[in-house]
Structure prediction request, 526 residues.
Amino acid sequence: MAAESVGDRLDETTCDRLRNRVTTVGDREALPVTAPYTNEVVGTVPRCRPADVDAAVDRARSAQSAWAARSVENRATVLERFADSVLANRERLLDVVQVETGKTRLDALAEVLDVVLTADYYAENGPEQLAGSRRGSRLPGLTRVETHHDPVGVAGFVEPWNYPLTLAISDFLPALLAGNTVVLKPAEETPFTALLAHELLVEAGVPEDVVQVVTGEGEPLGEPLVAGVDQITFTGSTETGRAIGSLAGEHLVDASLELGGKNPAIVLADADLDAAVRALVWGSYANAGQLCLSFERIYVEQSVYAEFRDRFVEATASRSLGATFDFGPNVGSLISEAQRSVVETHVKDARARGGTVLTGGKRREDVGPLFYEPTVLADLPAEATAATAETFGPVVTIEPVPDAAAGVRRANATDYGLHASVWTADRERGRSLARQIRAGSVSINDAFAGMWASTDAPMGGVADSGIGRRHGPEGISKFTETQTVTSQRGPPLVPIDAVPAGIIARGAILGIGAVRRLKRRLPPWL
Ligand code: NAD
Prediction:
């Protein structure tokens, strides 16, 4: 049992060593970090103050020009070495992630693999994505146009606890590759994961000051961070995202906001029910449902509803819970009492409003202090909290729908728009339905892993699920400023004083007409 071994997995000496990586400019109060498996304090980090954020930004800014002056190939090699090191040190990383989050080892492994995939993807593709290019002009032959992508400077990151490696580290890898330096504020629950990754980054060749880490609560640190950096990336709740977004507006800093979701799945009558049950059970309870992509609403075509429901409930009830550091259990702990309270409030409210708890719906303190059973709700009235608000826990609602169109309507009945899933034997039809769902990503006949691992494709939310994208070319271009350089092949494009304005105007109109006729026959770069 983990209860006996949390301290063996993250000991005091390691905590002391990692704590020194935090940027501070004075003695700071100690902020305890607890292990959800046992609720015991495993170590402390400094409760940073705004002055520490200012110092971190200054240090990152001083380090930026030397980092940007390296060739992009050199930075790509550093990222590859980091990926090697993450794989080589995976057992240490898995231990720290599990201690801080209480997730299963398999859920923790997904984080390790994600960092490797992302580092390799940007090391391979980033140099080309950052290369300048020739662009076309609407005035063929007169102007040569080229664009260049420069780093924004210092990029800031505020990250949540649910994926402390994937989000806190993978998110800034493209920023580093683009020549930026980084200031990271990890979640107060999970600082040691970020600090261990920082140690590995430095060993892989990232200069110490290039990535700065400040620890502590978001509220006092968010303002100076947004004010100091040149771009802010935030992943977390929609409520905090709005606060960060308005600070970014005030300071005219570009913001990428990856926020909450209430993700739907639609199961059609012709779907492979075995696969749908297996994938949606996994996709609803992975990371104990504390996953932005996990499903909280499943709409099933009426003719297969009863069969799907019974099989889904049976599979949910057979998920194993466990607080262990091996690959055994299916479902891990919730992160905190606050998170458990949200889950319990939603289930209590569902019951009070006439919803049915088909399985689960209770604490499992026999497994660990914060464990909660995977839960299936049905007959949920529209006004129930769990019908619309993100639970961010192991709770999913299932509901029959008369047909696919009704499934799409129900799926779209939300303020969020992060991810969705469609199940049908007819993939063509699935793709067409996907295009009717308002969400940043849709997986057909899969939960979300295939989408997430398609690192070349952007991922992010619409509506209350956020602004901006990670992954793909979009995931690196947000960390750059584009400069356009034009050079004239002939005289400058200015009116000639000796020619009357009326003649110039007529000439310009005739010229535009000629260009429009010619344009289709000329190469775009002219
Ligand atoms: P949260 O918003 O409470 O906290 C996230 C981070 O913001 C933490 O580091 C916190 O310290 C900081 N923070 C809190 N208040 C702040 C403030 N006023 N100013 C600046 N920083 C502040 O979110 P959470 O509860 O840690 O995470 C869960 C949420 O994250 C869920 O809604 C989930 O859907 C979302 N999430 C989204 C994605 C995505 O990619 N879209 C991924 C993971 C999680």
Residues 55 and 380 are 51 Å apart (CA to CA). The mean pLDDT is 96. The pocket of nicotinamide-adenine-dinucleotide is lined by residues 158-162, 167, 185, 187-188, 217-219, 222, 235-237, 240, 243-244, 258-261, 292, 390, 392, 418, 461, 466 (CB under 6 Å). The radius of gyration is 26 Å.
